[in-house]
Design goal:
17 helices; alpha/beta
């Protein structure tokens, strides 16, 4: 076939706007529809099972309709039947699975007709998201990492599986014991779990052993759950049902679920999409070679009608069918502002304004040609994105802990110099009169995801170890200076305006032993080590207290364009020392259970001391209560008594802040 050259005229002629592509099941029959605009002939092949070597039992001719769509209706109950297509173009035959499939067999090689109602766990029709929280606190988690460790409290058969999330009534940690992972997650207090990709992805063998590992950023079947997390990879309904059980269990635990989606590229250029419409779905350079903005050599041509329609329909399918509460977009800089805003509109129209979270990586691995009249969803274009679409803020990440790629380069908490003003800009989510970031101008802090570590690059613990002790240091040693820097980094992140995000295990010193790119490292490198929740219980308690505290501080939870105006004063008392004074009154924000009786302080005073010396700071006028400091983050009435009585927590005039620590104080009345 002659190489396809895209034009807008092609879309006008062939773009299909129907939402019924794929195998649409009905009890009386199944309708098969495939968009293959260049094909001269298409055949539907039916199989007894989903195995790659199984021979087709029946091969049936499909009929060509308008807009390049091929159609065939088969009467009867075809639930559980496996199928694929043979697409004939200019005398050549290409076998392809169905890119619109919602079910598949082992390793995604054959598609499966699915009656989705039969895959619903008991009570799933009534499943719904927990109430929207006062603040979004997102916990990034890989399904296998969560329960692979024998100390997870999960039976061997369910370790690393969807089913691990369904065992939520286990013990909490007691002295010398480890918690079961779901009970721990519930007790931690996060509001959302962000799961690394769990649609069907390539690279690993679903029929292989449990020692395989991959993050999952190799999409194969976009609308089918990954089989390696299921207890049975051969029956295509099991992965669907168990995935739904996982989401249902998280909802019952009061936790919303975010899906990490990878619409910027496919596992390789020879995808099901490209096999059905060669040259259309992949983005190419002027000379016809594949664009490589994803570093995978298979960028999707976002900006073309059928590509955009595919992505929108896929997102909406997951939101409807699996009751997902949000989406994180991988390499969003390869997507367009226009598409991201369209997805936002579609989600809002069906589920309510802002009900589903949307955020993504505002960068790409390399330049990639965009279609005419489109704009890349890059950090510099944030002002063109809907206010309810957020980005990972690498500016905040790097100013707190140091450069993400140069491991020994420090940030504010680990010895970096002249960063005080940038820290203060991070406090307001880089909003206000001068963000100090060139063309980076968020419309409000609602567009900011504050974080200090994620699955990519070093864990926070490993970054701090390397930057403070060098590359030959022992990552498993509980260095006191690393622990202090970790606490200060968390305190800063949790007292910046915007949304909050942390990598699973960050709160108990997670290490990958210096592996900065563990995307397919051994699962023992990647897994959460649950004994560390006991060994680093002080750090866990610190994070848990920050999570509780954040929800009762309206000044920090405010996402409005005027939120930055809550800052009454910013101070830089000396090198490595930053402080700010904030209006914490609810204003027009809905009151939370914690502040419904007026319990939240009217003003906040926050101090970060990253210097090597203890410092004394003048407090604004009023009587101030310590809400958090370098030792603990959950000061309340009982903590006040344990700490030596009321006089320990009430401050007037000045406060002394130890080196490499911070403090949050509240004032309820003058």
């Amino acid at each position: 076939m002659k190489q396809f050259r895209y034009s807008r005229d092609f879309d006008e002629q062939f773009a299909y706007e129907g939402k019924d592509l794929g195998a649409v099941y009905g009890p009386q029959g199944t309708n098969f529809k495939l968009w293959a605009p260049f094909a001269d002939r298409v055949e539907l092949c039916l199989y007894e099972d989903g195995g790659r070597e199984t021979k087709a039992g029946r091969i049936l001719e499909m009929e060509k309709e308008e807009k390049g769509v091929w159609n065939l209706f088969l009467a009867g109950d075809y639930h559980g039947s496996y199928y694929d297509y043979r697409v004939w173009t200019e005398g050549e035959c290409c076998r392809t699975a169905d890119p619109y499939a919602v079910g598949c067999g082992s390793n995604g090689y054959r598609s499966m007709v699915t009656d989705l109602k039969r895959t619903n766990p008991e009570g799933f029709e009534e499943d719904c998201a927990p109430r929207r929280p006062a603040e979004n606190i997102i916990y990034e988690l890989h399904i296998k990492d969560f329960s692979h460790d024998p100390d997870s409290g999960i039976p061997r058969a369910y370790r690393g599986k969807y089913k691990a999330f369904t065992l939520g009534e286990g013990r909490l940690a007691a002295d010398g014991q480890y918690p079961t992972c779901m009970s721990y997650l519930k007790e931690l207090g996060v509001t959302h779990v962000h799961l690394l990709p769990f649609f069907d992805y390539g690279w690993l063998d679903e029929e292989g052993d449990e020692e395989q590992f991959n993050w999952g950023y190799d999409p194969v079947n976009y609308n089918v759950p990954e089989g390696s997390y299921a207890t049975d990879v051969h029956d295509g309904t099991v992965r669907i049902r168990e995935c739904k059980e996982m989401i249902q269990a998280l909802h019952r635990a009061g936790i919303r679920v975010i899906m990490d989606v990878v619409y910027n590229h496919t596992q390789d250029a020879d995808s099901w999409l490209e096999r059905t419409a060669p040259g259309y779905y992949c983005r190419r350079l002027q000379d016809g070679t594949l664009s490589n903005g994803s570093a995978c050599g298979s960028d999707l041509a976002i900006g073309r009608r059928m590509v955009d329609n595919y992505i929108v329909n896929s997102v909406m399918y997951w939101a409807r069918e699996y009751h997902l509460d949000g989406f994180r977009f991988d390499l969003m800089g390869l997507m367009t502002v226009e598409l991201m805003n369209r997805i936002r509109r579609e989600l809002d129209r069906e589920f309510g304004r802002g009900e589903k979270l949307m955020y993504g990586e505002p960068w790409r691995a390399a330049d990639s040609p965009m279609e005419e009249d489109t704009r890349a969803a890059l950090k510099e274009n944030i002002r063109y994105l809907d206010e309810e679409i957020a980005i990972f803020c690498d500016s905040t990440r790097d100013v707190i802990k140091g450069h993400v790629f140069y491991e020994e380069e420090p940030g504010f908490v680990n010895g970096g110099q002249d960063l005080e003003e940038k820290v203060l800009r991070a406090v307001t989510g880089w909003c206000g009169e001068d963000s100090g970031e060139g063309t980076f101008h968020p419309r409000s802090c609602s567009q900011i995801i504050n974080y200090i570590s994620a699955h990519d690059n070093f864990t926070l613990w490993d970054k701090l170890v390397v930057s403070l002790h060098g590359t030959g240091a022992d990552f498993t040693r509980p260095y006191e200076d690393v622990l202090a820097a970790n606490k200060l980094a968390a305190l800063i992140c949790f007292t910046c305006q915007g949304n909050l995000f942390l990598q699973a295990g960050e709160e108990f010193g997670r290490t990958k032993l210096g592996d900065a790119n563990s995307y397919r490292s051994h699962p023992e490198i990647n897994m959460l080590r649950w004994r560390q929740t006991v060994e680093y219980k002080e750090l866990v308690a610190y994070y848990r207290g920050l999570i509780r505290l954040r929800g009762r501080l309206p000044g920090l939870c405010d996402k409005s364009p005027e939120a930055a105006e809550r800052i009454l004063e910013k101070k830089v008392p000396g090198p490595g020392i930053v402080a700010y004074h904030m209006d914490n009154r609810p204003g027009n924000l809905p009151r939370t259970p914690d502040d419904a009786d007026g319990g939240a302080p009217e003003r906040l005073f926050v101090i970060y001391n990253a210097s090597e010396r203890e410092t004394e700071i003048d407090l604004p006028e009023g009587t101030w209560t310590v809400l958090a400091d370098g030792q603990r983050t959950d000061y309340d009435g009982s903590a006040c008594e344990e700490a030596g009585g009321e006089a320990f927590l009430i401050r007037k005039g000045r406060i002394s802040v130890p080196a490499c620590s911070g403090a949050v104080l509240g004032c309820s009345q003058d």
